[in-house]
Amino acid sequence: MLNLWFQDELYLRIAQASIAGVFALLVVILVHWQSIRLEKEIVIAVLRSLVQITLVGSVLIYVLTAPTWLGVLVLAGMILSAAFTAARRTREIPGSMRATFFAIFLGSGSVIGVMTFLGVIQWEISSLLPVGSMIISGGMNSCALALDRFKGEIDSHVGHIEAGLCLGASSREVVKPYVRKSFQASLIPRINSMRALGIVWIPGIMSGMLLAGSDPIYAALYQFVVMAMLFVASSLSSLISILLVRKYVFSEAEQLILRPEGD
Amino acid sequence: MRQMDGMQSVKSPPVILRVENLTRQIDGSKIIDNLSISIKKGEVWVVVGPSGAGKSSFFRLLNRLDEPQAGKIWFHGQDTAILPPQELRSRIGLVLQEANLFPGTVKGNIAFGPQQKGVTLSQEIVEQLLDQVGLTGFADRDVRNLSGGEAQRVSLARTLANSLEILLLDEPTSALDDEAKQEIEELVTSIIRKQQITCLMVTHDIQQAIRIATHAMILDKGKLVNSGMVGEVLDA
């Protein structure tokens, strides 16, 4: 319908973005009505994503033709930014930024490195950058989910944790159930994506490859490769982040440092 | 005279815990203020004082759940700051106000402490511990099916399972009704007398304090206001 009103492509795209923005605004109203207190964060996230993707879109064509080493630098910057984003929600956890950085660097970075070395990801910026960014983003989301859940588990189980410590247990032992729950929770979206692959959603890479004339089987297999890489990177990043943070929430004398607000 | 001194030192139990100028502050306000006291082996102390006097905070420092900003705690003449925290906590057991039992069975809870030291409790020992707290036959019960009083007894039994030397009881009856409170109180009294465990207990109940304790200390605003034999301190 919008095509009928806007012949110029620029105006058409702006209209499409505006309509998407209006839908996001409806969510903000809904959130406000239910007193969920997420309005500011949603508005900032929507505006940021619009500005960021527009800026990136305008320079991406030049970046994709740049030398490959530049792609590595861009990915390094992405890891740093992903670490910052993942740690934002759990700023109360001491050392959370350090944990998310090492987790994403080791989890997503190792998958990108190994897969590039093996030739699964081509050593070309046009392949390295989009696939690498997806893997980093997967690691970031898993870390954020894992740490948010871990903090929630600690907050609601202070009594159990301290009861365990009082009985002579190590900090590692007393948080074992919460490490397990947080790791499981962080992987639910990833496992769901794999389960629903091809049935509930057909991912962009596969669609792109098909439109570009690839054999459907090759496109499907490569999509599976990407999904598997995402799964491995997300799992590693999530696990490393929880294991690091597990250490940071206790003092050297095995005292729980992280305590719920107002406690 | 020398002989008399000698006899006295043989009879007098050794100091098991010595607290020296202990201070802890949070956001600039002192919740434990320069507290010093000596506890001898086998003594039963009650710690009394108004809400916010620092009683629970004092116990958390003794068990090293929190760190003091100043002062020392000596356990058997050893600075607790250099003892491994896990070892210290299994020798100075703390029963908190809430039972906070771990999900699973009563047996699992009882076995938890010794398991941390690589010791597996036999069924017989578990039963003995449960007998001691009046929960015979409860070993395989799911902790979700226990009443508040039963849960607190399990909490006490799992602390005792560690073969501890000092028992710290931080108002273990505060969340219970009067009947359960009296049961736990009788239980604690019989266990500490039978096993001759050194015990420190926080209570708001002066009558309870007089019934159970040999000694008493009064805290107020983190300071030790008075301490000594229970009759002298609480009658004063």
Fold blueprint:
The complex is a heterodimer of chains A (263) and B (236).
Chain A (H helix, E strand, L loop, with lengths): L1 H4 L3 H25 L5 H25 L4 H21 L7 H23 L6 H32 L1 H9 L4 H4 L1 H21 L7 H8 L4 H33 L15
Helix pairs in contact in A: 2-3, 4-5, 4-6, 5-6, 5-11, 6-9, 6-11, 9-11, 10-11
Chain B lengths: L1 H10 L3 E12 L2 E12 L3 E5 L6 H8 L7 E6 L2 E2 L5 H7 E4 L10 H11 L6 H10 L15 H13 L5 E5 L7 H18 L2 E5 L3 H7 L2 E6 L2 E7 H6 L1
Parallel strand pairs in B: 3-8, 3-9, 6-7, 7-8
Antiparallel strand pairs in B: 1-2, 1-4, 4-5, 9-10
Structure description:
The complex is a heterodimer of chains A (263) and B (236). Chain A is mainly alpha-helical. Helix content of chain A is 78%, strand content 0%. In chain A, helix 6 packs across helix 9 and helix 10 (204-211) runs antiparallel to helix 11. The model of chain A has no long low-confidence stretch (mean pLDDT 91). Chain B is of the alpha/beta class and 236 residues long. Chain B has a domain at 43-55 and 91-235: 3-Layer(aba) Sandwich (Rossmann fold). Chain B has helices at 2-11, 55-62, 85-91, 106-116, 123-132, 148-160, 178-195, 206-212, 230-235; strands at 15-26, 29-40, 44-48, 70-75, 78-79, 92-95, 166-170, 198-202, 215-220, 223-229. In chain B, strands 6-7-8-3-9-10 form a six-stranded mixed β-sheet, with helices on both faces. Chain B has a four-stranded antiparallel β-sheet with strand order 2-1-4-5, with helices on one face. Mean pLDDT of chain B is 89; it is low at 1-9. Chains A and B meet through helix 7 of A and helix 3, strand 6, helix 4 and helix 6 of B.
